[in-house]
Amino acid sequence: MIPLATILGISAAAVLIIAGYLLGAKRALQTRVQLREQSMQQAEELLRLREQVTQYTKEDADASIMRKDMLRMTKALLHQRDAVHSMLEPLNKRDAEVDSLRAIVEQAVTPLTQREQLAYELSTLNTNKGDRSNLVQLLDQIAEKGQFWAVSLHDEQGLPLAASSNSKDLERLTAISALVLLFAERIGRTGGPVPLSLMVHDESNMATLCRIFRVGEQRLLLSAVATGTQLTPTALDPALSKVDSVLSATH
């Protein structure tokens, strides 16, 4: 009996030991599995971090390369701009010289063009032969086409025969006309060439052109007043034939 009980006790103890060992082994296995999974997760996380670090490093390298490329392109563009400016500088200088020359030519040609235009306008005036009322209309046309402040016609004593509608200081024009006729007559007495036109330029920058001409045996004077010195001694010549035509029709 005693040995049997002993055997059963030993067996029970062995069973308990084995059961405890198996339980410990199972727990150890579970622990190892958990640790392995954690290790794998950590490895994956480390790999992901390494990939991110590699990607960031690559992006930084690409960004650095891009910045260098952009800097190189910017320098190249600045160099090209400077080169273009260097090429354009003499062209701009030449354009400035051409513009200056053009301005000088225009300044020189403009008075000639204006004179030719005035000569054409005065030579194409409309004249209606009839009475002396047409003479006033003709003087109005001369004043309009020539942009004159006043136009007047005087006899050989300087007395006014007619004046344009815009004439205001006819007394002054009469005095100038009489003086010019007297001056021309006295010069003619010396045996030299007789003056045909004289110009009076006053301190108000007004110029009065007096043109002496003849209609038959009658000596007349046609005067025009303008601002500045745009008048020339022959500016009224194209209109003389028109005045002659109107005056001839009144006789």
Primary descriptors:
rod-shaped, single chain, 251 residues, five-stranded antiparallel beta sheet, Beta-Lactamase, alpha+beta, 4 helices
CATH superfamily of the largest domain: Dynein light chain 2a, cytoplasmic
The top-level CATH class of the largest domain is Alpha Beta
- How much of the sequence lies in strands comes to 5-15%
Q: Per CATH, which architecture of the largest domain?
A: 2-Layer Sandwich
Biggest β-sheet: strands ordered side by side in the sheet: 2-1-5-4-3
Q: What global shape is seen?
A: rod-shaped
**Percent of residues in helices:** 55-70%
Helical stretch count? 4
- Major beta sheet, specifics? 5 strands, antiparallel
- The whole-number mean of residue pLDDT values reads 79
Task: Indicate the topology.
Blueprint: H1 2-123, H2 133-146, E1 150-154, E2 160-163, H3 170-189, E3 197-201, E4 206-215, E5 218-227, H4 237-250
Antiparallel strand pairs: 1-2, 1-5, 3-4, 4-5
